[in-house]
Specification:
Chain lengths: ~180, ~150
């Protein structure tokens, strides 16, 4: 016996998407035209889980090559700032070009296009954020932090901190500790 | 930031300031949607409404009739629902102590109202871009302090 089946591709795909997205337990919005808006941060584990679950149905997540490369640039910078072993004495431009296998000019243009900031500013932001963490922890002096983060002097770090945030490292520390007193 | 817009809310009782603020955002390259409220009571009514869209950045004037910016700040900080929202104090000059106190009470940004339109655009662009960096790079928002 033969059965004749009528189906709606779109409805089927939506249903599969909905099921698989529900399985990884994230908030989402299916926008149509093959776009899904994930309404929270998607961990890489969940992303992989979703990608492989959808892969079984030959549904593929199209990745944007530019965004992936930008993410790699960010990862390389963060590794350079936070990890003392990779904190090598080569220029950042050389380090990034070598690590990622593209010219620095290309990387730098791409980064600005996608993130609305420059690689230089991103590095400064990361260093200042790291400084903030260390200042709050409080077991290193600003001079020691400057040394750890490869600043030529504590004055250089202080100035960069003030230029980036508009407040001095000591005011920053004071504000955060007062905030904590209130919350107690 | 490519496809959707950034939602901005301002509470300020000065009509000219509200107008300049909205125009400044219109002229920036960043796509934003700006809503303004005339005082703290209107603002909090909006934010506490059931279907309110949470702004990405909220700008608060300090001196407003009925409910001041500081009162709004304290109410907002006491409510977990608003924890993802960056708060910018947008005010005419205040004492160093007052400025620091807004940070202590949980403001992320303090902007002294600039005296010309060009500076205003620059300041607003800086705020939105930096907020975007915190958002997309998973930086710790508790440490987000900026004074312009």
């Amino acid at each position: 016996m033969k059965l004749f089946i009528k189906f709606d591709f779109n409805a089927v795909c939506r249903q599969v998407l909905r099921e698989k997205l529900d399985e990884i337990d994230v908030k989402y919005n299916i926008l149509g035209f093959g776009e899904v808006d994930i309404l929270e941060n998607l961990s890489s584990e969940k992303y992989d889980e979703l990608a492989s679950a959808l892969g079984n149905y030959n549904i593929e997540i199209v990745e944007n090559q530019k965004s992936i490369l930008v993410q790699k640039i960010k990862d390389a910078i963060i590794d350079m700032v936070f990890n003392e072993e990779t904190n090598v004495n080569v220029k950042t431009s050389v380090y990034l070009a070598d690590t990622l296998g593209h010219s620095y000019g290309y990387l730098s243009n791409l980064f600005s296009e996608v993130t609305y900031t420059s690689i230089e500013n991103f590095i400064i932001l990361q260093k200042i954020e790291y400084t903030k963490q260390l200042v709050i922890k409080g077991n290193l002096s600003l001079t020691e932090i400057a040394f750890k983060l490869n600043y030529s002097s504590v004055a250089h770090l202080s100035t960069q901190f003030k230029n980036t945030t508009g407040i001095t490292p000591s005011a920053f520390k004071r504000i955060i500790s007062k905030r904590r007193e209130i919350n107690l | 930031m490519n496809d959707d817009y950034i939602h901005i809310v301002l509470a300020d009782d000065d009509e000219d300031d509200r107008l300049l603020f909205t125009e400044a955002f219109d002229e920036l390259k960043i796509t934003t949607k700006v809503n303004t409220y005339n005082d703290g009571v209107y603002l909090m009514d909006y934010l506490n409404g059931e279907d309110a869209i949470m702004p990405n950045v909220l700008f608060l004037d300090l001196n407003m009739p009925r409910k001041s910016g500081m009162e709004c700040l304290k109410e907002i900080k006491a409510n977990d629902k608003f924890k993802d929202m960056a708060i910018a104090i947008y005010s005419t000059s205040a004492s160093e102590e007052d400025i620091e106190n807004t940070f202590v009470q949980g403001a992320n940004i303090y902007i002294k109202k600039p005296d010309n339109f060009k500076k205003l655009k620059k300041a607003l662009s800086e705020v939105v871009t930096l907020n975007w960096q915190y958002h997309t790079n998973g930086l710790n928002k508790d440490n987000f302090l900026l004074r312009l």
